[in-house]
From TrEMBL:
Pfam families hit by this protein: Sugar_tr
Name of the protein described by the UniProt record: Major facilitator superfamily (MFS) profile domain-containing protein
InterPro entries reported in the protein's UniProt record: MFS_dom, MFS_STP/MST-like_plant, MFS_sugar_transport-like, MFS_trans_sf, STP/PLT_plant, Sugar/inositol_transpt, Sugar_transporter_CS
A single GO cellular-component term on record: membrane
One Gene Ontology molecular-function label: symporter activity
Superkingdom of source: Eukaryota
TM segment ranges: 12-31, 72-91, 103-121, 127-149, 161-183, 189-212, 274-297, 309-327, 334-355, 375-395, 402-423
Family listed: Belongs to the major facilitator superfamily. Sugar transporter (TC 2.A.1.1) family. Belongs to the major facilitator superfamily. Phosphate:H(+) symporter (TC 2.A.1.9) family.
Primary residence: membrane
Record NCBIfam families: SP (TIGR00879)
Keyword terms: Membrane, Sugar transport, Symport, Transmembrane, Transmembrane helix, Transport
Subcellular location: Membrane
Length: 460
């Protein structure tokens, strides 16, 4: 078995450009996360599409926790993730048959279409359709981009490269907050401008994807060995790639024997990466991060900040932890400042842990023969949980009030225990050696790995 040390590589300008271009899909995802909260807090948007919610917002004595409890308003945010859930399985097939690069290109087209349709919406159905187009783009992008980054990164830099996706998600959320802050004063078209600007990074991803190389693993898996070796030399910046090429080729030969990868995922040996891939996505959302990211401006207004101040605060921390808020009236400003500091810490901790690692670990723990299909389950699980959180949060806030954050805290405790006992370390392990060097060595998951022999050779 080849070791990571013998895989020669250089970090070239070209490969860095490829990583940054691909990571723009993360920026689009983050922008979509951040933009919806600001838009739903804009009076012009509410008056046009959700007049009843706007009326409740204007009532000074209205229950603070229930001002924005409206299923259709929540559907504006959550419909994107339901569409992404469905699209992720089609994206998995596209990744496997056509490659990672074309899948990223398709994602950019849906992003551009979603931006245009949302910005021009005159009716609720047009608004929701625009979000669905965004969602399909998210499904394709979130399927292909983490896999692309993992497969093109040198083993010793794989973690850092894959974290670019989450970094750009965070940048996208920041940009969305800044955009919403300035467009909130553009009456009555501010919300249209906010939604339309999503087309700009979509165009960057579209034109940038033209320079991307296809990943060596994808090319070799599809029988293009010579092109795969050439691509490997190009992204490694050296001609000395024989050892890594042979390892990728061996993994691809195994993958070719698997005719039905989704059925292969039901095999006992696929349980460890599948369980971890799905559970990491569920747990990532049960931190409560996206509930806060989606509805930060709404929550700030609930606390008593003015509209502009609520959007500016969302730029700073992307969130608010709702404590010490009475049913009516506003929160004491001193307490509000303390809450802002606490949430800064909360968001920072998420960005260092569950944010990037929730995407990194599933992208590198599936063997090549089930990598795209397995990651599709991970992406779809993330989108399902994101949809549920987005659709239910404002209603949960209305009924559970501040206790909703204790609900998320209990989940975080469970998540910690799961990581301690069931998540293996993959640092420094070549992506195509995960089975031998990770799963078969883990004290719990090794029980699911078949012994070497004829039984283990059986392929679907």
């Amino acid at each position: 078995m080849a070791n990571a040390e013998v895989f020669k590589s250089k970090i070239t300008v070209y490969v860095v450009a490829c990583w940054i271009v691909a990571a723009f899909g993360g920026l689009l995802f983050g922008y979509d996360i951040g933009i919806s909260g600001g838009v739903t807090a804009m009076d012009d948007f509410l008056m046009k599409f959700f007049p009843k919610v706007h009326e409740r917002k204007l009532h000074a004595k209205e229950d603070n926790y229930c001002k924005y409890d409206d299923q259709l308003l929540q559907l504006f945010t959550s419909s994107l993730y339901l569409a992404a859930l469905v699209a992720s399985f089609g994206a998995s097939k596209a990744c496997r048959i056509f490659g990672r690069k074309p899948t990223i290109l398709v994602a950019s087209l849906f992003f551009i279409g979603g931006a245009g349709f949302s910005a021009l919406a005159e009716h609720k159905w047009m608004l929701i359709l625009g979000r669905i187009l965004f969602g399909i783009g998210v499904g394709f992008g979130n399927e292909a981009i983490p896999v692309f980054l993992s497969e093109t990164a040198p083993v010793q830099h794989r973690g850092a490269v894959n974290i670019l996706f989450q970094l750009f998600v965070t940048i996208g959320i920041l940009i969305a907050g800044i955009v919403n802050y300035f467009t909130s004063t553009l009456h009555p078209i501010g919300w249209r401008v906010s939604l339309a600007i999503a087309g700009i990074p979509g165009l960057v991803l579209f034109f940038g994807s033209m320079i991307l190389t296809e990943t060596p693993a994808s090319l070799i898996e599809r029988g293009k060995d010579t092109k795969g070796k050439t691509a490997l030399k190009k992204i490694r910046g050296t001609d000395n790639v024989e050892d890594e090429y042979e390892e990728v080729k061996r993994a691809c030969e195994i993958a070719k024997e698997v005719k039905q990868p989704f059925k292969k995922l039901m095999k006992r040996s696929s349980v460890p990466p599948l369980v971890i891939g799905i559970m990491l996505q569920i747990f990532q959302q049960m931190t409560g991060i996206n509930a806060i990211m989606f509805y930060a401006p709404v929550l700030f207004q609930t606390m008593g900040f003015k509209n502009d101040a609520s959007l500016l605060s969302a730029v700073s921390i992307g969130a608010i932890l709702l404590t010490h808020l009475n049913t009516t009236g506003t929160m004491d400003k001193g307490l509000a400042a303390v809450v802002v500091v606490l949430v800064c810490l909360y968001v920072m901790c998420f960005a260092w842990s569950w944010g990037p690692l929730g995407w990194l670990i599933p992208s590198e723990t599936f063997p090549l023969e089930t990598r795209t299909s397995g990651f599709a389950f991970a992406v779809s699980s993330n989108m399902l949980m994101t949809f549920l959180v987005a659709q239910a949060f404002l209603s949960m806030l209305c009924h559970m009030r501040a206790f909703i954050f204790f609900f998320f805290s209990a989940w975080i405790l469970v998540m910690g225990l799961f990581v301690v006992f069931l998540v293996p370390e993959t640092k420094g392990v070549p992506i195509d050696s995960i089975v031998e060097r990770v799963w078969k060595q883990h004290p719990v998951w090794k029980k699911f790995m078949d012994d070497d022999g004829p039984k283990n050779k059986e392929m679907v």
